[in-house]
Amino acid sequence: MSSGPQPSRSASPTLVGRASLLATVRSHLAAARPVLLTGPSGIGKSALLTALGTGGQLGERVLRIGGTQAERWLPWTATVDLLRHLLGAGADELPDGQRAAVDAILVRGRADRSPDPHGARLAVHGLLSRYVHGGPALLLVDDLDCVDAESAAVVAYAVRRLGSSGLGCVCAALPGTRPLHGGVEVPVPPLSPGRLAEMLAPLALPDRVANTVHADSGGNPFLALSLAGAATDRPVGDLRPLPLPPTLRAVIARRLEGLPGQVRGTLLAAALADAPTVDLLRRAGHEGAARDIAEASAAGLLVQGDGGIRFTPPAVAAVLAHTATAEQRARTHRALAVAVPHAAGRIRHQALAAPDLTQGRSLATAARIALGSGARSLAARMFLLAADRTPAEAGTERFEWFAAAAEAGAAESLPEIVHQAAEAVLSANAHSSQRVRVRLALADLSSQALARMDEVLAGALEDAEGDAALTAQVRLRLAWARMVGGDLPGSRSEAVAAADLARSAADRSTEALALTVQALTDRLTARPAEAQRALTAALDPPAPVPDGLLPLSPRFYAARFAFFDDRLAESRTELLRMLSRVERGQGDELVLVLRCLAEVCARMGRCRDALYYAHRAGRVARECGTSPGPVWYTSAVAELAGGSLSRAAAFAKRGVRASEQEYDAIHIGRCLHVLGQVQLRQGDPTTAVRTLERVREGERRRGLMAPWCCAGTVTSPWAWPVWAALRKPPR
């Protein structure tokens, strides 16, 4: 709660990502301005106070007090802590009235006396004045918003009069608290993804898990450490949602209990909605939604961004639903049924308000409508609800809807739904086609980690035996897995087999996707004529692209090949058209299109656009938990084109590490190539050559004859001449 009165001379503890914030606070203290650190619970305000108190950079002695929610109504509590530090600073020399006030606060002498507030203020002011006469002092007040009113008045009185006499003051409180007189508020922001990864580095989490921890915690250090602790033993390929540790569940429950009933009601509506916004909550009858959401944000329970509301961690929504009564949930669903704009959403909330096992088919019909309109998240949840509302004896129909939920969930990168649906199908006596579909959904969910999904794809191939159409879909994923893993001949072989099987089963969609993968392998192995024939065959006649498989579609790779060939305006135009289609969702497709737009803009010299698209792709990738390696590669390209060389190097190094974890040979080479260019521009050609040598060796192992890893970067005009010159044998 407090520190002793002796000056601190120890080194400041290392706080990741807070150096500039500490410097800002110290500059205000040097100018005799009191500082108020504000931010939600768990953001690190107390840690900052500790760092300030042990840094000793201004040579000050430290006094620390604080408040608690349980003691905020007990008068003079914090003043007692402060007086215990100051009693040696001439308390016996105080005038009688002030000494009587001190005795009353400390319950000394006559126990029936109440402290005189004015006498108490004068006494503490006098003691602090004597204390700072011996050298500068720093008063740290933690949880100012929970300090009792009497003590808060005493602190404000003393700081207002002694601020220019050597008494610095830093307080910490939740947002909405007013600074002391003449003071300045300094908000404590969330940690960035890179800084949070640095903080979590000792836990050795896979980068994809660390990225998910950042999204689920909103950059809040306390939440991040709590979630990361539950994921320390998780292998790279485990894409299940992070579990909620019991201790964190208890913390969330306490924070919710501390909120007014009106705020909890608003949060329950947000928890039960598919895509909550403040506007939706207002339409559902919560007029003070903006104020309620702000209060919940201050408590560290959610974050707002792009108009939406995201619970931190997402399991807060489950805690809210679990602690509400059945009547509260039903009433909230009825209100949401009136407020949501989507017809399928209204049906979902009506069904949840009135449980009925006969609703399965109508819910599935509404889910198909939602899927057709691009609302894949809503569709996945409705298919799951349809399966739940279908009697067990209607097994085939029930498993069909589980499979549909898994497919829609994979396209939208919703691991909780995909794993729940897959477990229901694979643990029961479901039809082999349904088993194949959920296994493929699990594979699609893996993104660039597909090379690690051998067991899942082997099971899918076994279940698909004898069915040409299903086997073609499995072999299509195997072709891409071989591609990602660096086996180009194996990838082409699987793609050719998939195309032949799909053609025999009259499955034009899968055939077109397989021909696209074949075209890509032909291009990478320096067979441009064959690549063009395969791509032309994939494009004509046109075929619909299954949800979530835009990254393998002929239309996408036609735009990508235009980029490789420097037909940049054509590529950008086609990608912008695709963006208008995929930006209604939040899955891998959206990340891919944003990434490619960033790379095209970087090549065109539209550096601001490149940085914008790269930043947006990174945010979506964190929120949907997709592979971070490709996004960090794109961020490195954008930074190299128009940002910071140091940031470009950091993104490239992180991209190499993440891609190695997922066996993604494609982006290992790409990230190394960007890193080599950065090192050249930083004036380190020797290190750059070693880095670029790794790229070339990787290309040789993969049989890559038309290097595509360089096609997405802004190649330095001197990069390859320098490399060649440095590789000449010495005379």
From TrEMBL:
A Pfam short name: AAA_16
Keywords (A to Z) from UniProt: ATP-binding, Nucleotide-binding
GO CC annotation, single: cytoplasm
Example of a GO MF term: adenylate cyclase activity
Keyword Nucleotide-binding attached: yes
Every Orc1-like AAA ATPase domain range: 15-164
Protein known as: Transcriptional regulator
Protein source organism: Streptomyces laurentii
Species lineage: Bacteria, Bacillati, Actinomycetota, Actinomycetes, Kitasatosporales
